[in-house]
Amino acid sequence: MEEFTDARPPEELLNHLKLEEPAAPESGPGSARQPRTAGGSYAPCPDPAEEPFHDCHDSFEAQSPVLDAEGSAEDEGSSSRKQTELDEESLLELERDLPEEEKQKRRKESTGLKEKGNEHFKKGDYGEAEDSYSKALQVCPACFQKDRAVLFSNRAAAKMKQDKTEAALSDCTKAVELDPHYIRALLRRAELYEKTEKLDEALEDYKAVLEKDPSVHQAREACMRLPQQIEERNEKLKKEMLGKLKDLGNLVLRPFGLSTENFQIKQDSSTGSYSINFVQNPNNNR
User: Fold this and answer.
1) Which architecture characterizes domain 180-265 according to CATH?
2) In this structure, which topology does domain 77-179 adopt according to CATH?
3) Which residue stretches belong to region Disordered (predicted)?
4) pLDDT of 187-197, one tens digit each?
5) What is the mean pLDDT of residues 114-135?
6) What is the 3-state secondary structure (H, E, C) of 120-150?
């Protein structure tokens, strides 16, 4: 076999050859050529999964809606108002140095927004009414507590119409805290408590209304009706609890061949105390 005896380095041997770069595939106007490194070779393509989408903002316009406390979608403005709604003490601190003229100006503006909300409410546009009351609360100075109590109560009414029960309860509570003698807010909160089966809290609010105004028929009727409902509810809960305790007792006693039927509870009529008697064959005593 003939040996290759040329001692020149491989780089010089290849100088006479003409290397052609492969033609880049045709692509659309939006494609880019693969970048080269400093040595002339091609850099590896980035992993598509790791490539940032800097120029795709417009393609993601449809974002997940923000949900309120009731699970309903709310608009961006409503969400932002919720985030910036401060407590009354913080508002008072922020407005401490506000000139009286500016306070009166804001009060007048909030009154106009409240009236606008009332108009929406009368038309059945409860979402628009809620929005107007929220804007009025943002404007109304915290020093006008009764004005703000009315706004919270009105917004609660608008939320009630939209079945936003928990949010309406919160607004009613704020209204009562600002004006403890505000009967309409107390009545609305009592209705909401009753609707959510918080009967004890509802009864307390109805009693508070009667203390302030004994002529309120709705409160008087509720104070006659709710005690019986509360008693029936408590009796039902007691039976359910005893049933669960009985099931638990049977689970524990079953490995010993016993059940809760082997234990009879008797109440002493004179003292009111209870005694437990063991019965070997409870079925024979029936």
Assistant:
1) Alpha Horseshoe (1.25)
2) 1.25.40
3) 1-128
4) 999 999 999 99
5) 96
6) HHHHCCHHHHHHHHHHHHHHCCCCCHHHHHH
